[in-house]
Amino acid sequence: MAQALAAYSDACTIPSLTPGCPYYRLDETGPTCAEECRGILEQMGVQRPTTTLTVLDGLVMTGVSRPIEVASATTPFDATKILLSELHEPVATASTTTLLLRLRDFAATPPASREVTDDQFFETWRELEKRRIPVEDVLRQQAASAMSSEVLRQIDHTDGVLTDEWSRLFRSCLSQQQHDHERFASWFHTRLAAWFGRLVESDLMGFLTWTVPPEALLTNVSPLASELEASWLWDRFTLTSLEDWATTSLSLEWRRAEGNSTSRCSERVLAARRIDPDDVARVALSRLAENAALISNPIRRPEERDLSTQQFVDRAVHHLSLGHPDSAAEIFTALAFMNPADGDALNNLGFCLIPTSAAQALGPLDRAAGLPMSNPTVNVANRAFVRHLLGRDSEALALLADVSPGDTTAYVWAEEDCGSFRLSFQRLDAYVTELRAHLLPLLRGEQ
User: Fold this and answer.
1) How many other CB atoms sit within 10 Å of the CB of residue 315?
2) Distance between CA 284 and CA 17 in Å, rounded?
3) Tell me: the pLDDT tens digits for 208-233?
4) What is the rounded CA–CA span in Å between residue 316 and residue 295?
5) What is the pTM of this model?
6) Which of 179, 196, 209, 210 could form a disulfide with 183 if both were Cys (CB 3.0 to 4.6 A apart)?
7) Alpha-carbon dihedral sign for residues 172, 178, 181, 182
């Protein structure tokens, strides 16, 4: 009885479920249930039987053994066939394969050429979220790359539908980069995919409307690390052949087979495609030699994936250390233009302007003071230093009077000679103390 119930449960998959099940019901979103069968199995103390497979030099892979009643009832998975058979399928009853491909195709179609509305896109998004698919990660991982490829394709065609702004950006970046055309296209694709990927979190409508990035941000944006779970789910539902899967996806498939998956995706959704562990092992082992470390431990530390000011600090410091403050200032000028209420962008812009024009730096630094910032004390120190450079020492000392830097560090400017600056990374309390000590004798008329 338990084996029969396990087979019945495994065969029940989203979106259709099993109409003949006593727990099956329909609500406003379509077929649903509370997965009572799985609860009954747990109450019966049923442990899913596992199987081990020795594949190479003692390497043992362990996975869940699917009941033969389930395996014999499955049909070969074909993503293309599924999509074509569901061209007009309503969102609520469409397969996860179809929904993922619709989501990607919508995003990768130039806004002027879309035949599907934004409302339909968000309806698809909501349905995928109900199935616990990490939609934002999928957009960053798959859609952003497809969008970048389509931009390049459109630029290469004279009859493309993109605005001239894209072509100007491409030509301007090409003139600045020391690459041949093929290497530059790869560089441009990577940076543009990172731009679109970060827009998902920072400006979703900008993502959907293909906002053209400021050149200063495109050339300095950091590529995003792979979204490993999103990549696995994408491969699992949209790539028919295991040979086309990423190595990390094969590894995560094995983790699921041996019961070690930490995926947010519903098990019932995953059960829509059944994969033979022997096939996964065969393909995975063919890549094991060249990707041994990656396949054994594909987990990576999470990173920030937006367009916040902090993501560009390292690149700005790089420009400053090379003596190119204008290049650094361009980054934060673009960020401040995108979000005029970004106190960190304005503070950093003012900081980058200090070596070339203290007078120009004063404006953004003072505007930043009235906005939220990650470290307001840095802004106070910058404003005091600029006022000192402009000969307004009493104002500078007044700003520092009540500052309590605490145990923090930051990049600061030190004036070695008149008009000569040195970039330094140091504790703020030490910097403020030094600046106060420098200002006091000046106000007393001492040399």
Assistant:
1) 18
2) 31
3) 999 999 999 999 998 888 889 999 99
4) 35
5) 0.71
6) 179
7) negative
